[in-house]
Amino acid sequence: MCWDERVDFQAAFLQKLAKYVPNIYSAEMDPLLEKQEEMAQIKIFDPLEWYLFREDPDVCLEKLRQCGASQLCGKVFKSGETTYSCRDCAIDPTCVLCMDCFQNSIHKNHRYKMHTSTGGGFCDCGDTEAWKAGPLCTNHEPGAASSTKANSECQLNEELMAQAKKMFPSILKYIVDMTIWEEEKELPPVLMTREKTDHYYCVLFNDEHHSYDHVIYSLQRALGCELGEAQLHTTAIDKEGRRAVKEGPYVSCQEAKEEIKRHSENVSQRPLHVEVLHADVMAHQKFALRLGSWLNKLMSYSSDFRQIFCQICLKEEADSEKPCLISMLMLWDAKLHKGGWVYYYKPLQKEYISDDHDRSFSVTALSVQMFTVPTLARHLIEEQNVITVITETLLEVLPEYLDKNDKFNFQGYSQDKLGRVYAVICDLKYILITKPTVWTDRLRVRFLEGFRSFLRILTCMQGMEEIQRQIGQHIEVDPDWEAAIAIQMQLKNILLMFQEWCACDEDLLLEAYKECHTAVMRCSTSSHSREKTVLQLCGHTLESKRYRVSVDPVSIHLPLSRTFAGLHIRLSKTGAISRLQEFVPSEQFQVELLMEYPLRCLVLVAQVAAEMWRRNGLSLISQVFYYQDVKCREEMYDKDIIMLQIGASFMDPNLFLLLILQRYELVNAFKKIMPTKDQDLTKQYNILIEEMLQVLIYVVGERYVPGVSSVTKEEITMREIIHLLCIEPMAHSAIAKSLPENENNETGLEKVINKVAVFKKPGVSGHGVYELKDECMKEFNMFFYHYTKTQHSKAEHMQKKRRKQENRDEGKRLDWTIDQVLWFSAPVSFVLIK
């Protein structure tokens, strides 16, 4: 052994490193890797292992290895490696297996998905919280008989644990100190044991702002090297995070640094990140990574080692303001070359967003490993208020996109920076992906705090990027619309998950409904015109705010109103609506104001169909397309229809119809005072009338929503498939693409497809398709609200043709009954009577 028991381990350990590390790792440009590894093993690792085990390390490690395989695989995936997720048993799509575990598990005979890892995640084999069934593969499933014996034999003795507790703090502190070391020319005094030499390296670091070609060009110009050498350097930089590109005295390396930065600025706005590091600093930083690998391998042998490691990493020094070791590393994340988690979440995400490294190299990528563990997620919500932390982080990183009205406006946005913001949104999805089965008072309070904070984000989105109808001259440049729609897509499942969480507990649902109602009313009253107009028609009078979609600003983004609609139907579904008066008194429930903005949005869609907005360019057409597309419609178009159904159920039916006529600007048409000579205007009126009548039909007839009527999710999916197959026979993939996905990326197609369709095998050429069963034909509704105009025409033509061939009546029955429509029955009966 190389260390005397009477000597302080830390001092002896650092002295040995100061003596050997610079010599072993002196050659950075052309290292002899095998010789370096051999020398490090002989001079450093072997003595460390002897000191730890106090006997032959190989013998001791073999005992630990034979003690029994770990029930946790924990394999860390490399970028590009294949992962497997079981669609039947995984708790969520983030639960994956490596190839070896998958091939030796029950999941290989289930429905599964294959993915390509971006790197950094690890295999979930052995994690009972990740799987509904089959958490262990045969490789990691111990025999029941030998399990107890193995556990007792695997316990480390007190002497070995005492040695580990003595050694690990010094080893970990050295690794952390050298990883975050900032001095380029100097080492810590304790590691400087020889006279300083004039031996330096010019080191180039990786970033995400420069392409391969930019780096290669800059290196060739600055160093005068050949293409092959420049390519070698660039590949190593991309793989390892940094690379020494020149060796020599300080002055020579400094000149190379300036040349590289100057040439890189010629091809990019930012210069490459280059530093001049002393050879000894480079050596110790390189060895710190190697020492970390050794420690990681050591901990894989015993859970006792891992427990000691965790205790040391999370221990804070007494009477010191310094954070614990793991916190120091996390806070240094953006500067690295390559629980406190929530406490430092904001600064970590801010650094990541402003940084130029890919997410796979950031510590923020670990969020998926923490937030998707159900018990840990519940703990973080209750103890760390993580939902509020994440939502406040979003509010703090997006202020530059707020306009003077405190609404988001993403015109001229940075695609790279906004793409990094999506990572924070994904974290919100991860934390909400598993609903709690038991609610505590603290969990209820914390979730409600997070929900209030989330409503602040939705308030900034409510009415964002308003547009106004262009009259006369065509718009010169189409405004940016992709960012707002992309954020809407990112939030779709999160909005649904918030609503589902609220629906788990009746008191929580009512409190959340009250908060959402207050937020909607605040937005509606602040931006609503105070000037009123009076409409009289058929002996009825409506007094409402003066507004015209064709003249005034309008927005397609209304997540706050749509969240309110989602919570309202869950009140109906759970029966909590009977207690609504306790939380929102009837005098505060201004339903006309609540449905105003969704109605405007539907009118905008009708006017776009009537080509009244053609001078506004393709931007608006694209937004309307996504508004009704399967990717967005659940939390956009569908919720607007529901909001009108809510309005119709609370308002006087006559006033409801008058408000619809007024917003569609069709009052004159029904008063028969519209011009008849202008053919374009007549065409517009005809299309608007058609669109308005369709919306009224949807308000009456579209009841396949839980809470609007007594239907299940399976019945909804069946109805969607029926109407898709009424257009034409379709392949499995085509049907799946036409159905909305839930938070687990599932459509529910496989559960119900065989109930409504039969599979026709492919012929000599072509592919197999599903055809609708004859008994399901009666469910066809020619006014199905998810049909595009093209799909509507094709479906109607196909059904007429089929009915004609079968000599059947073309009449269509209503596919719901009055007693199925819960509290929405008032407007239904009224419209049917009228």
Automatic annotation (TrEMBL):
Its EC number is 2.3.2.27. GO terms for cellular component: cytosol; ubiquitin ligase complex. GO terms for molecular function: ubiquitin protein ligase activity; zinc ion binding. Keywords: Acetylation, Cytoplasm, Metal-binding, Phosphoprotein, Transferase, Ubl conjugation pathway, Zinc, Zinc-finger. It is found in: Cytoplasm, Cytosol. Residues 71-142 form the UBR-type domain. One of its GO terms (biological process) is ubiquitin-dependent protein catabolic process via the N-end rule pathway. The keyword DNA repair does not apply. It is an enzyme of class 2 (transferase). A zinc finger (UBR-type) spans 71-142. It catalyses: S-ubiquitinyl-[E2 ubiquitin-conjugating enzyme]-L-cysteine + [acceptor protein]-L-lysine = [E2 ubiquitin-conjugating enzyme]-L-cysteine + N(6)-ubiquitinyl-[acceptor protein]-L-lysine. Interacts with RECQL4. Ubiquitin ligase protein which is a component of the N-end rule pathway. Recognizes and binds to proteins bearing specific N-terminal residues that are destabilizing according to the N-end rule, leading to their ubiquitination and subsequent degradation. This is E3 ubiquitin-protein ligase. It comes from Mauremys mutica.
